[in-house]
Amino acid sequence: MSKLRIIFAASLLILGVLLAFTLFRPMVLGQKFETLIRESIIQEEDEWIIQINIINKEGEDTDYTIEWSTGGEIYNSKNVSIKNGRTFTNIHHVHPETVREGEINLTIYKEGEPTPFEQSTYYVRFD
What top-level class would CATH report for the domain 35-125? Predict the structure, then answer.
């Protein structure tokens, strides 16, 4: 057998093994997301609009606390209950009297958990 045939046979064998792993056993086992967050931010002439969608995939109805803060001070807090498999949309308007320039912080807690499962910071400026 020539070297070329041996290399070709070895390549086919390796390709077959990789294909078998791909089909029968994923290389990376994914983590199940229980709750998903999708967000959008829009700048208008006289305000910023931040929209978040919380998608509950917990397997049961879940209560959440959504807090908006700036400078360490919470200025808007809301408790919501989201049914399993449903989406909750929170539209938050940021006006110049709330914060002229700087950070807007979003923190979301699941009921009964001391640490937030989502924290985001948005940087805004009004001209």
Answer: mainly beta
